[in-house]
Amino acid sequence: MIRYFLVLAVTGCSLLLADFAIGFLAASEPRGPGSVWRGVHVLFSLLTVLVILGVHSIVYTYFMATLKWAKEVARVYQLPDWLIAQATRNKRRAFRFIMGSMTAVAVTAWLGAAADTRGGSYGAWHLWVASLTLAFNFVSFVVEYLGIVSHHRLLSELKNQADRMREERYGPEVAARTSL
User: How far is CA 72 from CA 69, 75, 84, 94, 162, in A?
Assistant: First the structure.
C-alpha cells in the first residue's frame, strides 16, 4: 500500500497544483462564449475532485479493512490489546485528515460553481478556500503516509506474532502451509 499511496498522493498533488494554476488563467480572461480557460478549469476541476476523493476513499477503506483484519487476528490468537488500540489510533488519526480533505475539496468545488454561475464575491472566496484546500491536502497526504507506514509496521508485527503462535501450536510444517 505504501508504494501505491505515494503514486496516488503525487498524482493528487500534481492535479491540485495544475488546477490551481489553470484557475488563475481562467480568472484572468473575460467572461463570454470565447472563454476557453474557464471551460478547461471546470473540466480539470471535475477530474481533480474525482481523483482526490478517490485517493482519500482508498486510504479510508485501507484503514477500515486492515483494522477489522487486525481485530479478528488478535481475537483468534488472543494477542495483546495494545495492538488493536494502536491500530485504532492509526485509523482515527488519519480519519480526521481524510474527512477534512474531502470536505475541503467539496466546499472548494461548491464555491467554484457559485463563482462561475453567480460571479461577484464568490470568486475571492473560491480562491481563498482553494488555497486552504491545497495546503490542507498536502498536509493530509503527509499525515496519511505516516499513518500508513506506522500501520504497516503494526500489521507486520501482528502477523509475525500470529505466525509464531501458529508454529508453536501446530508445528512448522502446518504453519508454513497455512500462513496468513
Answer: 5, 5, 10, 21, 11
As a whole number of angstroms, the distance between CA 137 and CA 5 comes to 14
Distance of CA 152 to the CA centre of its chain: 16
pLDDT at 175 over 70: no
Displacement of CA 34 from its chain's centroid (Å) = 36
Residue type, 148: I
- Region for residue 29 given its phi and psi (left: phi exceeds 0; alpha: psi -120 to 50; beta: otherwise): beta
Give the span between the Cα atoms of 170 and 8, in whole angstroms.
41
Query: Distance between alpha carbon 131 and the CA centroid of its chain, in Å?
Result: 18
End-to-end Cα separation, the chain, in angstroms: 17
- Closest C-alpha to 20, from 44, 1, 2, 39: 44
Cα 58 from chain centre? 6
Torsion of CA 47, 48, 54, 57, to 10 degrees: -150
What is the rounded average pLDDT for all residues in the chain? Answer: 93
pLDDT digits (tens, 9 = 90+) for 88-145: 999 999 999 999 999 999 999 999 999 988 877 899 999 999 999 999 999 999 999 9
Count other Cβ atoms within 10 Å, centred on residue 94.
Answer: 24
Question: Can you tell me the distance from the alpha carbon of 180 to that of 165, in angstroms, rounded to the nearest whole number?
Answer: 12
